[in-house]
C-alpha cells in the first residue's frame, strides 16, 4: 500500500471546513463564545498577555502525570494517577474539544483573547495530546508494570499464562463473559451499530468459511466486568490478565463456522457540550433529560484505535463514524487506561500504596472520656469554627450537622444547595427524614452539574416524593454555591445556623478533595444565606447582602474593589499584598486588574491548581506576580482569598474561582472570615502552600511550569503531609491560636503570608 493511501492522521491536510457540517446564525449560539468580555473594560488581548485555556489545562494534566512518573510515590498509586490522567483526558475531549468543534461547525472562527482561532487550538491540542499519550503509556508499560512485577504484582499477556492460569481465564470467559457478549455483524440486513461513549469495542473482520465473503462485526467489551482478571493470587504474588485479551483469545467462539481474520480494539469519545436554551424551556428537568438522551448520540470527538488494525478497517471506522483523521489517535497495545484507577483497590500489597489516611475528629468535638458530647448547635453557638477536609472528618461535622438538624425537634427548617453528591448520600436521606417529621425542607438541586445530571435528577425526584420543596434555580445560571442554613427555635425566638463551604456535600469526594467549610451563627451571615435561598427560590432581582459576597452581581465588583484598595496602598508607598488559592484563574478582566496591581508594586501570589491564563513574571506587566500549583494525593479544591488591606488582613473562603463562568454565570457564595484565630489557620494553609518544595510547581513567564526546588538547609515541606501531621498531632480547637512551633518547624515566622 502506498504512503498516500496509508491511514495516517498526522500526514493529512486538515482544514477547518472539514468540520463545518451546517451553518448556524451566530446570535443563536451565544454560549459557543466562551469569551464575550469585550469593549472598553478589556484593554489587553493577545498571546503576550494571556495563556490559552485549553493548552493550560493540558499543562495541568502533565503535572498530574508527573505524579505517576515520580518514583517517590507508591507504585499502585502511581498507576492510579495514570487512570486520573486518562479520565481527565476523556472529560477534556467531551467538554473542551467538543465545544471547540461546535464553534467550527457553526462557522465561528473568532480568535480567543490569546489570539488562537478554534481550529488553531485544535491543532495545538492534538500535538500536546500526542505527547501526553506517549508519556503516560511509556510510564505505565515501561516503568510501572515492570516495577510492579518486581514487587509481586504481574501483568501477563494471555499467551504467556501457564496452563493452570489459562484454564482459570477460560473458565472466567465461559461463565462470566461469553453470556453477555453480543457480536453485531454489518451487512445489508444489519446496519453499522451505535457505538456508546467511552466504550471499548473489537472491530472484527470475519471470513465466511464457504463463500470467502468478508464481513465486519463489532463486539462490545462489557463495562460491568473488571478490566483485569486475577489468575493467581497468593500472599506474595498476584497475576493479572487484561479482560480484553481473554475475549480476544476466545473471540472465534462468537463466530462458529467463520474465520476471524483480525480483531482490534477501538474506543470513541462523544461530545458533551450540547446546545441548551433554558430561556425557552417550559420545564428545566425535562430539558436536561432530553439533553442526556441527545448526549448518548452526540457527535464523536475522538477515536482511539489499535495501531495494528488493518488500514481498510480504520478507514471503515472513519466512514461509518463520520469523523476526520484529526480526531484519530493510534496506540500500540491496550486502550482506555482510565481503568487504572481500579489498581489502587487491589487487596493487600499495602507497601505499594500511600499510607492510609483516616480523617480525624475535629478538635471542637474532642471531649474528656466519659463527658457527654454536646449537640452540634451548642458547639457552633460557642464560637465559629472551620473544618478542613479531608483532614477533618466530613461524617462527624457536615453530615452530623444535617443529621442532627433532621432529628432535633427544635429545628423548624433546613435549606441546602446540591451540586454534586453520592448515589446513596446520608445527607439526602437525613433531609428526607426531616421532611417526614414535618420540618420545612428546601433543596436547590443543580440539574446542570456536568456528568452528574442524571444522578441529580434522580435525587430531585426522590426528594420531591418525600415532601421536600425542590427548586432548580434560575435560567442561565448554575447553582454552584455550597451552603446550608438551619432554623431552630430557642427560648421563644428563632436562631439560624449556617455552613458555608468550598466543596460539595459529597461524602465520597470529601475523603479525596481538599476543602474548607465555616460553621457560624453570625446573624448577618446567616441572614445573608437565608436571603440567598429566597433569591434562588423566589423573585428578588435587587437582593442585597450584608457580608456574603454573592455571584453574579456582587462578587466581581467586590474583588475588583479589594484589588483597587491594594493598588492605592502601593501608590501611597505602603505594603500591599494579595494571596489567593483556587482551582482555575481565567477571567480576563480580573487578570487585567492584577496586571495593573503588579505594575504599581502590589505583591501577588496565586495558588492555582489547574488552568491559569495569567502570565506571571513579565517585566513591566506582571513581575510582582507569582503563580504556584499544588498537585499531590489529594485534589486541591478550596478557594481562599487574602488581602492585606492596610493591616486589616481580610480573609475569605467560598465556592468561586476567578473565572468568567463563576463570576457571571453561576450562583456563588464567598464568606469573610472574621475570627482572628480562624484567620491564623488560613494563614497557616497559605504559608505551607507557598513554601512547599515537594508538591509545588511554579509558572514561568514563558508559560512553562517547573517544580519548586529545595534550598540548602530547607526542611522537606509537602503540603498534604504537613496538614495530615498537623491535624492529627495538635488536639487544641482550631479556633485557638496555632502553636508558634508548628509554624517555625516549616521555616515560617510571624507576619502576613
Give the class-level CATH name of the largest domain: Alpha Beta
What is the SS-derived class? Answer: alpha/beta
The end-to-end span amounts to: 65 Å
| Sheet with the most strands, sense and barrel status | 10 strands, mixed
Question: Which fold name is given in CATH as the topology of the largest domain?
Answer: polyphosphate kinase like
Number of E-state strands: 27
- As a percent range, the share of helical residues equals 25-40%
Poorly predicted sequence stretches spanning 5 or more consecutive residues:
1-5, 18-39, 276-282, 732-753
The CATH architecture name of the largest domain reads 2-Layer Sandwich
The rounded Rg comes to: 28 Å
- Coarse shape: globular
User: Residue-averaged pLDDT, rounded?
Assistant: 87
Number of domains: 3
Strand content: 15-25%
Number of separate helices:
18
Amino acid at each position: 500500500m502506498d504512503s498516500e493511501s496509508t491511514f495516517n492522521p498526522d500526514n493529512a491536510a486538515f482544514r477547518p471546513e472539514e468540520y463545518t457540517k451546517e451553518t448556524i446564525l451566530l446570535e443563536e449560539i451565544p454560549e459557543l463564545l466562551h469569551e464575550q468580555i469585550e469593549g472598553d473594560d478589556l484593554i489587553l488581548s493577545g498571546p503576550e498577555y494571556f495563556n490559552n485555556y485549553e493548552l493550560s489545562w493540558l499543562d495541568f494534566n502533565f503535572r498530574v502525570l508527573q505524579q505517576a512518573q515520580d518514583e517517590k510515590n507508591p507504585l499502585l498509586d502511581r498507576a492510579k494517577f495514570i487512570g486520573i490522567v486518562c479520565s481527565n483526558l476523556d472529560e477534556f475531549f467531551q467538554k473542551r474539544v467538543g465545544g471547540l468543534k461546535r464553534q467550527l461547525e457553526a462557522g465561528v472562527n473568532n480568535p480567543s483573547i490569546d489570539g488562537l482561532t478554534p481550529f488553531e487550538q485544535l491543532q495545538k491540542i492534538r500535538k500536546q495530546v500526542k505527547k501526553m499519550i506517549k508519556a503516560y503509556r511509556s510510564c505505565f508499560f515501561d516503568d510501572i508494570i515492570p516495577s510492579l512485577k518486581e514487587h509481586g504484582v504481574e501483568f501477563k499477556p494471555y499467551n504467556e499464562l501457564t496452563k493452570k492460569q489459562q484454564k482459570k481465564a477460560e473458565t472466567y470467559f465461559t461463565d462470566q463473559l461469553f453470556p453477555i457478549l453480543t457480536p453485531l455483524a454489518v451487512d445489508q440486513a444489519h446496519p453499522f451499530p451505535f457505538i456508546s461513549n467511552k466504550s471499548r469495542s473489537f472491530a472484527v473482520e470475519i471470513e465466511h468459511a464457504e463463500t470467502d465473503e468478508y464481513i465486519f462485526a463489532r463486539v462490545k467489551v462489557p463495562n460491568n466486568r473488571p478490566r483485569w482478571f486475577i489468575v493467581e493470587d497468593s500472599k506474595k504474588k498476584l497475576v493479572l490478565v487484561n479482560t480484553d485479551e481473554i475475549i480476544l483469545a476466545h473471540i472465534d467462539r462468537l463466530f462458529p463456522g467463520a474465520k476471524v481474520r483480525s480483531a482490534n480494539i477501538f474506543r470513541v469519545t462523544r461530545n458533551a457540550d450540547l446546545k441548551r436554551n433554558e430561556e425557552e424551556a417550559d420545564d428545566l428537568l425535562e430539558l436536561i433529560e432530553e439533553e442526556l438522551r441527545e448526549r448518548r448520540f452526540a457527535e464523536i470527538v475522538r477515536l482511539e484505535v489499535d495501531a495494528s488494525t488493518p488500514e481498510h478497517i480504520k478507514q471503515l471506522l472513519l466512514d461509518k463514524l463520520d469523523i476526520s483523521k484529526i480526531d484519530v489517535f493510534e496506540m500500540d497495545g491496550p486502550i482506555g487506561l482510565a481503568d487504572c484507577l481500579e489498581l489502587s483497590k487491589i487487596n493487600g500489597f499495602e507497601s505499594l500504596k500511600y499510607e492510609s489516611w483516616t480523617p480525624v475528629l475535629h478538635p471542637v468535638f474532642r471531649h474528656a472520656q466519659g463527658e457527654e458530647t454536646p449537640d452540634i448547635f451548642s458547639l457552633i453557638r460557642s464560637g465559629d469554627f472551620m473544618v478542613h477536609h479531608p483532614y477533618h472528618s466530613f461524617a462527624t461535622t457536615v453530615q452530623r450537622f444535617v443529621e442532627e438538624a433532621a432529628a432535633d425537634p427544635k429545628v423548624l427548617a433546613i435549606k441546602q444547595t446540591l451540586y454534586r453528591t453520592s448515589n446513596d448520600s446520608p445527607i439526602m436521606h437525613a433531609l428526607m427524614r426531616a421532611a417526614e417529621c414535618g420540618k420545612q425542607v428546601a433543596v436547590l438541586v443543580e440539574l446542570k452539574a456536568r456528568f452528574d445530571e442524571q444522578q441529580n435528577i434522580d435525587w430531585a425526584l426522590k426528594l420531591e416524593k418525600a415532601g421536600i420543596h425542590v427548586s432548580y434555580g434560575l435560567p442561565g445560571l448554575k447553582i454552584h454555591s455550597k451552603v446550608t442554613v438551619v432554623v431552630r427555635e430557642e427560648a421563644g425566638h428563632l436562631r439560624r445556623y449556617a455552613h458555608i463551604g468550598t466543596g460539595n456535600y459529597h461524602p465520597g469526594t470529601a475523603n479525596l478533595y481538599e476543602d474548607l467549610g465555616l460553621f457560624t451563627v453570625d446573624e448577618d451571615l446567616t441572614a445573608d444565606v437565608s436571603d440567598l435561598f429566597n433569591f434562588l427560590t423566589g423573585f428578588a432581582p435587587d437582593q442585597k447582602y450584608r457580608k456574603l459576597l454573592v455571584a453574579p452581581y456582587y462578587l466581581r465588583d467586590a474583588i475588583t474593589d479589594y484589588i483597587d484598595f491594594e493598588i492605592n496602598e502601593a501608590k501611597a508607598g505602603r505594603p500591599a499584598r494579595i494571596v489567593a488559592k483556587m482551582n482555575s484563574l481565567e477571567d480576563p478582566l480580573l487578570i487585567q486588574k492584577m496586571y495593573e496591581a503588579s505594575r504599581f508594586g502590589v505583591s501577588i501570589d496565586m495558588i492555582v491548581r489547574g488552568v491559569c491564563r495569567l502570565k506571571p513574571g513579565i517585566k513591566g506587566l506582571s513581575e510582582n506576580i507569582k503563580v504556584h500549583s499544588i498537585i499531590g494525593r489529594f485534589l486541591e479544591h478550596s478557594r481562599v482569598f487574602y488581602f492585606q488591606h492596610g493591616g486589616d488582613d481580610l480573609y475569605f473562603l467560598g465556592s468561586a474561582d476567578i473565572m468568567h463562568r463563576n463570576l457571571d454565570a453561576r450562583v456563588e457564595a464567598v464568606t469573610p472570615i472574621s475570627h482572628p484565630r480562624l484567620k491564623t489557620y488560613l494563614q497557616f494553609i497559605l504559608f505551607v502552600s507557598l513554601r512547599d518544595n515537594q508538591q509545588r510547581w511554579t509558572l514561568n513567564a514563558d508559560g512553562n511550569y517547573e517544580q519548586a526546588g529545595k534550598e540548602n538547609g530547607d526542611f522537606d515541606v509537602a503540603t498534604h503531609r504537613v496538614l495530615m501531621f498537623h491535624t492529627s498531632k495538635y488536639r487544641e480547637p482550631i479556633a485557638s491560636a496555632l502553636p508558634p512551633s508548628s509554624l517555625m518547624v516549616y521555616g515560617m515566622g510571624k507576619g502576613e503570608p
